[in-house]
Amino acid sequence: MSDLEQLTQTLARNLKRWRAERGFTLDSLAARSGVSRGMIIQIEQARTNPSVGTTVKLADALGVSISTLLDHGRGPQVRIVPPDRTVRIWSSEAGSSTTMLIGTDERGPMELWTWHLVPGEATESAPHPAGTIEMLHVTAGELTLLVGEERFLVPAGAAAAFEANLPHGYRNDGSVPMEMTLAVSVPPVSAPV
Question: Can you name the residues that pair with 150 across neighbouring β-strands?
Answer without folding.
Answer: 147
